[in-house]
Specification:
Elements: H1 7-20, E1 27-32, E2 35-36, E3 40-43, E4 46-48, H2 50-62, E5 65-70, H3 73-81, E6 87-88, H4 96-99, E7 102-104, E8 109-118, E9 133-137, H5 141-149, E10 154-158, H6 161-169, E11 175-179, H7 180-189, E12 195-207, E13 210-212, H8 216-231, H9 234-242
Parallel strand pairs: 1-5, 1-6, 9-10, 9-11
Antiparallel strand pairs: 2-3, 3-4, 7-13, 8-11, 8-12
């Protein structure tokens, strides 16, 4: 009897698995940041924070396996496009330009920003940024906001939050723009540096998890799981745990 080749069968199986993400392991690789609390950070060797814990809760609802991998924000979406990551989790603002590059989940939060300075700084709001050296993480919503709102500021771009914070601590910059929750956590964690928030403001720009263009199956699972964690109160519980001072949009409260 002629033996049937199993190569085409195996190849077809691998193709199906790859299309769902995670290659032949069934595990989805999630690109995230190690240094931007409380949204995304690493603690005791584990990637945690509001965004990552929320994504883990979504994955549990949908039966998905996740592997979190650290990277710089500036490289994050490019690695989703190239297939190195299946999902990007990093408080990513859903801007029109980014939507040309990746697909986003339904919103799971909204962008809030803060101008952070050291005590005694003359900077009080966006109007006082003119001529000042202001740090931002390259390619973030903070970067876009600063360029549009205070074009006369001297924008100093960094690869990650840790570098922008270090520059602020050493007075290499006069101020930095971070996510509001991140700025608050830096102020609390660095009392000797006498950091303060000059001004905070909430935008109407939503955050979303990013996936490769056309991965509608994965996007559908993320959106379905998100609905479930909002409805059962998990979203609100995690928000209270990681960012209790940040505002909660009505659609995330779990109340109908």
């Amino acid at each position: 009897m002629k033996k049937l080749s199993v190569v085409p069968v195996v190849a077809a199986l691998l193709a199906v698995l790859a299309a769902c993400g995670g290659g032949d392991t069934g595990t989805l690789r999630v690109g995230t940041l190690p240094d931007s609390p409380p949204n995304i950070y690493q603690e005791n060797g584990k990637f945690t924070g509001f965004d990552n814990e929320l994504l883990s809760a979504i994955a549990q609802k949908e039966g998905l396996k996740l592997e979190f991998v650290g990277t710089d924000f500036s490289a994050l979406l490019g690695k989703v496009v190239s297939g190195q990551f299946d999902i990007a989790s990093s408080a990513i603002a859903q801007t029109p330009d980014r939507k040309k590059t990746v697909d986003f989940s339904a919103p799971y939060n909204f962008q809030s920003l803060s101008i952070e300075v050291k005590e005694g700084s003359p900077i009080t709001d966006e109007k006082s940024l003119s001529g000042k050296r202001i740090g931002v993480v390259q390619g973030t919503a903070s970067d876009a906001w600063l360029g549009a709102t205070a074009p006369s500021a001297q924008i100093v771009r960094f690869p990650n939050d840790a570098a922008a914070l270090s520059a602020l601590k050493t007075a290499a910059v006069d101020g930095s723009v971070f996510d509001q929750a991140t700025a608050e956590s830096y102020q609390k964690a660095n009392p000797a540096e006498k950091l303060k928030i000059a001004k905070s403001f909430t935008t109407d720009t939503p955050h979303g998890y990013a996936v490769k263009h056309g991965n509608s199956e994965l996007l559908g699972k993320l959106n379905d799981g998100l609905k479930q964690v909002i409805a059962d109160g998990t979203w609100l519980k995690l928000h209270q745990q990681f960012m209790p001072t940040a505002p909660v949009a009505p659609q995330f409260s779990g109340k109908k």
